[in-house]
What does this fold into?
Amino acid sequence: MSHKKRPSKASAAPPVVKKAVLPDQAEAALGASRYREAIEDYKELLKQERRPAWLEGLAAAYAGRAEQLAQKGMVKEALALWRTRADMCGTPLIEGPYVGWLLEAGEGEQALRLLAGATQKLSPDAQRQLETQVAAAVLMAPDSALTALAADSPLLRHRAAAQAALAAFARGDDAAMAEHGQAIPFRSPYRDLRALLKAFSLYRTDARQAAVALTRVPADGPFEPLAAVLRVCVLPGEAWLASLHSLNEVGRALVFDIKGWPEERRPLVLELAKLSDGPASAAMLYDLLARHRSTLPADTAAQLCRRLLPHAPGRLKTYSASFGALCAVEKDHILALAAELKRDPEQAEDHWLMLVERLRADPAQRARAALVLRRLADERSRYDRGRPPDEDALAWLAQSLELDPEDRATHITLIRALRVRSEPKELRKCLEAALARFPDDAEVLLEAVETALASGAFRKAAALARRVLKLDPINPRVRTVVGHAHLSHARKQIAGRNPVSARRELDEAAQWLRTNADHGSIKLLRGLIDERREEGDALLRAGLAEMGCALVGSFHLVLEASYTRHDPKALLRRAGIERNVVPATSEVVALAHALNAARVGDKAVQTALDLLSDVLRGAAAEQFAESDQLVVCEALHRHNQRAMVRRYAEAALRRWPARPVFVYLRASAAYGANPWRMPQRELLVLDRALELAQASGDQRTALRLDDLLAAATGHIGLPGEDDDDYLDGLPGNDAGTMLEMMLAALGEDAFLDIVRKQLGKPVFEEMRRDLGGNKKQFIRALIELLGAIGPPPGLGDAGAYADPLPIVPLKPPPRRKRHTAPPDMQKDLFDD
Amino acid sequence: MTDPYRVLGVADTADDEAIRAAYLAAIRACPPERDRLRFERVRAAYESISTERDRWAHALFDVAAPTVQEVLEILSGDLRPGCPDEQRLYRLLGGR
It folds into this structure.
């Protein structure tokens, strides 16, 4: 090591020539809180002359700088600077924040010594403030450290009571704590401790009251650490857990002590506190509980983890190691729920059915098996929304009733399903079984009423409805059903040219029905059968007036004309309806509501809309409110009025461009019947709308767009499952042949788009680079590769891109899974 | 809290009667005009387990995962407020 002496900086550097400091300069630095600069300036000035003003300036600059340091947590440095200040400027050490900093730095004893020596120099207020500041330090200090304090100091006089109250608090002796607390006077330096202990005693019985009591304890008092602990304790719910991290280790342990948490569970709670800070996944919570299972009450961890398993099915493997093996029933149950959560209805059905098989073997579990079967039927119907229940759903409902014939809800579900499917023989059998088991059940009787109505047995329906009303006299639904049954019967009589019976039925209907629309219908029907022409026309007009507006009235009049085999145009003329007047927006919205109440598939509705189509077309360009325009579009969409929906949706998109729901309605109207004809640009528009709908949380529109995209692209499932089955159905079950067909059908660019998407960008791009950008060679290489290894899953949906569709699946595709993205348009392909 | 039994404060084995009694007590203690959210939670809990079939269905089909709060409530169900450890208390206040 070299010991060569280096020249000192002082000798190497040129001599610094100090500029003369002006008093204004020093003041300016102080005023601008540039304390270090101010200290140097005042020191220079004081070298020239020891003026009191400059001394005060230096003291202020030191104080400012020390405060800055303390604020940064540099308390020791602040204390040192304060001592320098006292030396240089002759200021008393004890003034200002010095004692507080001493306490903060853990130098309580020094603070007490200082206090003992300086109290007589302070004003009474400053002295009281100082005493309050050091109260906690005095309380905790050994007696030997307090000898310098004046014997009459409240710090000493009230200390014993404060210590006794604290000890009673630690023992849980509320009575002693209250007694000693009362011995602490209101103005004592220990008053905050008294208030805190009072709040603690309240906490044992009423946390809210404790929280109120705590608000009376000033923040940053001498007992602030204890106050902070109690503030966390009284927080509601899990908020205290999230606030634990604001305390130090001792404070956290005290929170646990006060809340009564046993030591062995505290590590688990501290980890829960970390989870509660952010989004906790089921797997994270599962792992935590499994790790700490031994500290939890018997079976608690196992139960909680079992509930988490459907959300974290990957943990099934480790569950048995932690908690013991699950039985087959539990496993199927968890896997069924997990599949439902993954939105995989096929897998869910498989597991549910396995569960049913296991449950039905045990007579005590048959009712549960029945519930699972009903659930399967419900889920299938939910998935196939809008379509009649399929054979599987019906079979599951029937099996469910075999297992649990007392389940009234399943009887009703099955009756409704059979009614929708128009299976009269089965329906009658099922209804009879339900009525035999629940003869006096209003809901079952109501189903019988509706079934009778659906089969045209009006008298029977009315009789059954009266039975319902006997059981439930204020049942509004049956009142409507009875009234409508009479109305329907009246229509039947009118159609059969039997006005006497029709009048009788209308009189009956009038007794049951309450709404204006129903009374309007009655008047319209009376008008139809009135032999006196003028009176009949007047009744028709009165009926229309009851309907609220001309458009809705016309709609109902055409419906009644269709039901009673009258000429609708002639009736419109008789009622004085002009069919070339553009209706107001409110009338169109009212018609939409009437359409929503009408049965889908009713030919009379179609006839009415055909007759009103001119006026509806004319109204499409009117200025509807967005919500009204949507109501109209949806009502027309419900009745499959594609041309009209398209017109209204396009009008809406002109005013609210790219609104996802209108994009869906327009595309559905334009391509819903032949979705495979949808061009690529339309797919892109739909895809953007889907993203928008998802971003805005419009789940319904997102699902509808998703369905439409799936129908348009012919996509049948996410890659990885079942696709092989699908490919089996394609003509020429050979991957190479199929790929050639796809290439021919789609064209090169679209084919490459699909392959790129399926192979993944890295592999695709690497191959492309290897072939030097020669497109033809590249396509051949891809076909060879895919022919050799088999097409990737999902590469069978060529129909999505062909126009017209060249390849059609020969067997129904398996149930499709949710979210199918439309083809990714790779515009940059082969740019070179 | 997602567990209807805990919302109503009844055991997993409670029967129709016990559940109805707990429900009536809960809505008396918390009428809708006082705390609408809690009232709705209580009502939803009751509707999900009011009959035996409902309870079976709940056990079979409920997929609500326990939350951190629920776990905490379960774990703290048997706790009673305790006393602070004296040494910790003194350490917190700066004692040695």
